[in-house]
Design goal:
Belongs to the cystatin family. Phytocystatin subfamily. Helix content is about 20%, strand content about 60%. The relative contact order is 0.28. It is built from one helix and three strands. It has one domain: Nuclear Transport Factor 2, Chain: A. The chain has a three-stranded antiparallel beta sheet with strand order 1-2-3. It is α+β, with helices and mostly antiparallel strands.
Length: about 60
């Protein structure tokens, strides 16, 4: 999911972030599952932390 979040960010923002690693993750069960993920990614050679929120709705697949 973290790689998906970085890929989606790159598509939407026309950027070239490179996934590094997951720093922290938690989930919340609601109508589906919401994942809150802290990702380390490289932007122009500089490592930065990004927050991602991924909402998985299995009935929508």
């Amino acid at each position: 999911l973290a790689r998906l979040a970085v890929d989606e960010h790159n598509k939407k923002e026309n950027s070239l972030l490179q996934f590094g690693k997951v720093v922290k993750a938690k989930q919340q069960v609601v109508a589906g599952t919401v994942y809150y993920i802290t990702v380390e990614a490289t932007d122009g050679g500089v490592k930065k932390l990004y927050e991602a929120k991924v909402w998985v709705k299995p009935w929508m697949d």
